[in-house]
Amino acid sequence: MTILMLAGSPSQHSRSTALLRYAAQRLAARGLSGNELGLRDVPAVDLIEGNFNGAAAGALRKRVSDAQALLIATPVYKASFSGGLKAILDLLDEKSLADKIVLPIATGGSAAHLLALEYSLKPVLSALGARHILAGVYATDRQVVLHQGHVTIDDDVRERLDSAVDRLARHVATAPLSQGYDLGYLALNARFSI
Ligand SMILES: Cc1cc2nc3c(=O)[nH]c(=O)nc-3n(C[C@H](O)[C@H](O)[C@H](O)COP(=O)(O)O)c2cc1C
Description:
alpha/beta; Rossmann fold; binds flavin mononucleotide
């Protein structure tokens, strides 16, 4: 069982990726290991050209297929999730997120686009078959401060992220979806709170 940590920011010093890595550390402390996949792990030409039949896309789909759960982190770009993340998602099979537990994480310049992921990312995840989307975690730039390679996360964000990660860990550990446990109700409760 693996957990795929999908980092959707093109930035080398990324707040959303910092939250993703914090989440990975918390998962590791609970005995669950995640492996990170970023935009640079897929050749730019495959992303730009949407090279669905290329080797890189095949390897990407294998990593998604092998994962029981995905944490997907993205910056808000122009009131939506990042174009780079969309280019990655475009290379997946139509129902590749069916039976996966998905935890979205987003950072934005302000709270103005707090709901953008509700109407931008979640419909795309749904189109990819995701029916088990946990309540996402949204933070503003002020709440996630990067300084000389270190990240300082606001207490409120840390608490919400801890709680989201713990929820995901519980479901991964105790309710394998392959046994038919239905987490669909969680999607109904999914909210990006701040
Ligand atoms: C091209 C671009 C577009 C952005 N558009 C928005 C936006 O529409 N709404 C918003 O709240 N923040 C916007 N931001 C700010 C980023 O979402 C914010 O700084 C985020 O934390 C960056 O995440 P990252 O460090 O993981 O890349 C934008 C930033 C860039 C570079």
